[in-house]
Amino acid sequence: PIVSLDNNLATEEIFPPVRRPLSTPLQPEAPVPMLLVEQQRHRAASNEALVRGRQRNTDDIRKNRLRTTEPIYSQQGRRKRFTLSILAVVLVPIVLLSLLVAPRLLGISLFPVGVPLLGADPTATVSITPLAKNINDAYILTASPQVSTSDVTTRVIPDRTVSGSVTNSRTVPTNGTSLVPGVQARGYLLFVNGSNSPITVPAGITFTTTLGVSVQTTQTVEVPGHQNGQNGTMTSSSVVLNTGSAGNIPVNALARKCCHGLFVSNPDQFTGGADAHLVHVVVQSDIDGVRNQLSSALQQQVLKQLLSKMAPGEVMAQQPVYTTAASSDNPVGSQANQVTVQVTVSSNVIVYNHTVAGALAMQLLHEQASQTLGTSYQQRGTATVGVPHVVQQGKNGVIYLSVPVREVWVYSFSAQQFSQWKQSIRGMTLDAALVYLNAQKGVEAVQIHLPFGTDHFPTTVDQITILAV
């Protein structure tokens, strides 16, 4: 069928000449042939049907089917809507920000006093930072082995002495040398007298052996004469004149007549002769070397021994002072090829309980702070105790310690003060409340958070919260 249109309707309102239709057919269609438009007013199209819901139905002249298409907007309309959207995005935050800032900058309230913006938390929060004071001091305490418990009145704590000792030894070659001079050989000579008269042999007579060794008598003797059918005999101690092992003459190295008919010989070998030679001897460096080698390790062992004897919480008043003693099996200067050196390291230290010392110092500082600050302040946290150090060492194990200690005390607000402040600041402006609160005793700093959109405190104290931070 041929669709008859009103002359007042433009053909392009129904059939866009170029743009692709925005609607989707209800089912696939074949290419649409050119429509025949009758200009006569045989059948007038209803404007109401075409624009209902800003949509329109069109007839398919091939099968007389209706198609629904979206309205086609012009480029100018789309640009107008985009501009309005941008303006809305920009203006809305500006308006909200103005509502928030205007009371602060201009001193005016856009809403009744104490009334926040719709939906905002109506509670005002005040955070008070109390005044804090650092209290510190160093106390001189006496540590004595004569007491068993600490006393805050006399400022005395107990201490005790811990001892340790370790011994070790080592054998080393000797490094000293010495030249030993030659030694003369010694023996005796036998004199035989075959005459009837005694013959005297004075000391100092020298005889020469067949080996060329000179032997000299060292004593005067009288050799008796022949009696009862036997020759008279007498011995005399003698010495080889030259030193060395060559003087150790064998038996009968000397056998000849001498001294007015006497016969002299050496019936026994001469002994003791020695040549000059170098020998090893013990020197002080041998002992010191072993001492130095062993001392470091022995000190570590003594330290471990001392620590093992200390109770939990005990500390040494000072670093250990070690005493080192060394001894040897051969004295210095003696001849020996090796020497055994024994080294002993020992130490005595005074120990005390640092926890007891710290507790006594904290108690003293607490009493001092309470007297100085009064009841308005309270201690915050725990005290900090420094490292004690010895200022003086007395006799019989008594030492004097300096113990530093530090505490933080803060002003303590009562619930009655907070209640009074709430009554005073309700309905106040922010600046007035800051002036009032900062003027209160014990206040270090104030931070206020008012309900959103207001510049005054609520008029109801139940909507005011004060916290000490």
Describe the structure.
There is one protein chain. The protein has 469 residues and is an alpha+beta fold. Among the domains are: 124-131 and 412-468, no CATH class; 137-159 and 354-406, no CATH class; 161-176 and 281-350; 182-275, no CATH class. The chain has helices at 11-14, 47-51, 75-106, 284-308, 354-373, 415-425, 430-438; strands spanning 56-59, 66-69, 124-130, 132-144, 156-173, 176-180, 184-193, 199-201, 206-208, 214-217, 221-223, 232-243, 255-258, 262-265, 277-281, 314-316, 322-328, 338-353, 377-385, 389-393, 399-411, 443-449, 464-468. The strands form six sheets. Strands 4, 5, 16, 17, 18, 19, 20 and 21 form an eight-stranded mixed beta sheet that branches. A six-stranded antiparallel beta sheet has the order 9-10-12-7-14-13, with no helix packed on it. The chain has a three-stranded mixed beta sheet with strand order 22-3-23, covered by helices on one side. The longest helix has 32 residues, at 75-106. The two termini are 88 Å apart. The relative contact order is 0.16.
